[in-house]
Write a structure and sequence with these properties.
The chain has one domain: Vaccinia Virus protein VP39 (Rossmann fold, 3-Layer(aba) Sandwich). It has 280 residues and is α/β, with parallel strands linked by helices. Strand 4, helix 4 and strand 5 form a beta-alpha-beta unit. It is 33% helix and 24% strand.
Length: 280
């Protein structure tokens, strides 16, 4: 397998995923969402965002831009897709361009936007890839306007979905438990930057209409968990899935519950007057 054990700590240690490789070539197709699912997410994002329009939005870890144009249509203001992977950015520029969207090179730890410039910050399945989450929380706090909202869609290590595809691949659940931080851990990381939880929403997500389509989509391996599994385990897992689907006895559901954590500013942002130079 592609993961390593840290013997002293007894924890599963995961190497970073190379999103300029396989993932950039399959992500857009393997993680595409039906229009009604995108619309449902936009409705949830709107429900938890500041009132009034237009709003400036940061799509942090925007990947191939599967949400970025829809965010521009929904919130009516400029949207900045910030993504560290050049391969993912190129895919976004090619397939997810929009007049109100600007794609930028950057990361959660180094956001190329001014202070207090975003009304909404979206992180959709991003946090598990951030190497320094304390620094990232501070950066998010820096660019968020007073009263702004952070929309944080993630799997949490202590809230893994039941009835999912993970059961077909023996190492997958351990990988995801190690990959995704627990809910309380994320709350504490944001609280350290002055951001507090205001909501925890749960959405029921169904991305395909049939069991066969589900397996074929999964077979693209556009989920980073597969990067940490051996070829043997992957092949055996798909063989079991194919057999169960053919027999009409799948041990997975088409719809899964997805968590959306919403955090906001808990205190005013200290602002330096524009006419004063920063100390240094």
């Amino acid at each position: 397998m592609w993961w390593d054990w840290a013997d002293i700590e007894g924890w599963l240690v995961l190497n970073p995923v190379d999103y300029d490789g396989h993932q950039s070539s399959v992500y857009a197709k393997g993680r595409a969402l039906p229009a009604e699912v995108t619309a449902a997410w936009m409705s949830a994002f709107s429900r938890h965002s500041p009132p009034g329009r237009p709003l400036s939005v940061l799509d942090l870890g925007s990947g191939t831009g599967r949400f970025t144009p829809a965010l521009a249509e929904t919130f009516g203001g400029p949207v900045y897709g910030v993504e560290p992977s050049s391969g993912m950015r190129q895919a976004a520029l090619a397939d997810a361009a929009h007049p109100a969207v600007t794609y930028l090179e950057g990361s959660a730890c180094a956001i190329p936007l001014p202070d207090a410039s975003a009304d909404v910050v979206l992180l959709f399945l991003v946090w598990q890839h951030v190497p320094d989450r304390e620094a990232a929380a501070g950066e998010i706090r820096r660019v968020l306007r007073p009263g702004g909202r952070v929309l944080f869609r993630s799997t949490f290590g202590d809230r893994l979905p039941e009835g999912s595809w993970l059961g077909y691949f023996p190492g997958a659940a351990a990988v995801e438990a190690a990959m995704f931080p627990a809910l309380a851990e994320v709350e504490a990381e944001f609280a350290g930057a002055g951001l507090r939880q205001v909501a925890l929403d749960v959405a029921r997500i169904q991305t395909v209409e049939s069991l066969t389509a589900y397996v074929e989509r999964l077979r693209l391996r556009a989920i980073s968990t597969f990067e940490y599994l051996s070829e043997e385990e992957i092949e055996q897992g798909f063989a079991r899935m194919d057999a169960d689907v053919a027999a009409g006895t799948p041990a997975f559901r088409l719809a899964e519950d997805g968590d959306l954590l919403v955090v906001s500013c808990s205190r005013p942002v200290p602002m330096v007057p524009a006419t004063l130079a920063a100390p240094g």
